[in-house]
Design a protein that fits this description.
With about 230 residues, this protein is an alpha/beta fold. It has helices at about 15-30, 50-55, 70-75, 95-105, 125-140, 155-160, 170-180, 195-200, 200-215, 220-234, and strands at about 5-10, 35-45, 60-65, 85, 90, 110-120, 150, 180-190. It has 2 domains: about 5-195, Alpha-Beta Complex (Spore Coat Polysaccharide Biosynthesis Protein SpsA, Chain A); about 200-234, no CATH class. An 8-stranded mixed β-sheet has the order 3-2-1-4-7-6-8-5, sandwiched between helices. α9 runs antiparallel to α10. The longest helix has 17 residues, at about 125-140.
């Protein structure tokens, strides 16, 4: 299966080089298995060295402001792969990711997939977060964007792509997918940066995330949620 990896970025100079190099290293291993991948980086208006770093890699680069949902949708428009994989700019794919993408997408009833989550830090509380995330993903079939969601391009276009929301676009997108099929979780993990837990602390960050979900279920508009979230995150 030909895979298009779509990476939305905004001021990712500290992380994006490592993420792209990781993909290229994997592709060097996997080229013998004829599993080529298209890599598309969609910049949201970075004012640091993100674009300079990205352009030093053999990837496609486009610019699109308007938020992560818009960026991912624009990346999908130029994707040529049968499978679309949406990857955060601070997240590393497992070495055998392409094998698992193919296996899951060939599983009867599976409409989409994602990976287990591992945080690049050693704090015991983050190990607990990982366990809770992976239990939720496996049993409730509710992975989030930092778990590298993938699906067929045909399915993505059929449901209209990511909803144009300023925040929680992955949460709503996954719920839409869950209504039409199973979302399977690969038994291997992506490794994501610990930075979002470091800034405010693990407990406060987790509390903010849960309040966001509660606010959404209570009918608070995505615009208000986004404004509150950014205020809390500083």
């Amino acid at each position: 299966m030909h895979i298009s990896i779509i990476i939305p970025v905004l001021n990712e100079e500290l992380m994006i080089g490592r993420t792209l190099q990781n993909i290229l290293n994997i592709l060097n291993i996997q080229t013998t298995d004829s599993l080529p991948c298209q890599i598309i980086v969609v910049d949201g208006g970075s004012h640091d060295r993100t674009l300079e770093i990205v352009k030093s890699f053999p990837v496609q680069v486009i610019s699109q402001t308007g938020g992560r949902a818009v960026q991912m949708n624009e990346g999908a428009k130029i994707a040529t792969g049968e499978i679309l994989l949406f990857l955060h700019g601070d997240t590393l794919l497992p070495a055998d990711f392409a094998d698992w993408v193919e296996k899951i997408m060939n599983t009867p009833g599976a409409i989409a997939g994602a990976f287990r989550l591992k945080v690049n830090a050693s704090q015991p509380l983050l190990r607990l977060i990982e366990i809770l995330v992976n239990v939720r993903s496996h049993y409730a079939h509710l992975p989030y964007g930092d778990q590298a969601i993938f699906l067929r391009a045909e399915t993505f276009r059929k449901i209209g792509g990511f909803p144009l929301m300023p925040i929680m676009e992955d949460f709503v997108f996954i719920r839409q997918l869950g209504k039409i099929g199973k979302i399977a979780i690969a038994p291997v993990a992506v490794i994501t940066s610990e930075r979002r837990w470091q800034k405010l602390g693990i407990c406060q960050t987790t509390l903010i995330n849960q309040l966001m979900i509660m606010g959404y279920w209570c009918g608070v508009s995505p615009e208000k949620l986004a404004k509150w979230y950014r205020k809390q995150r500083g």
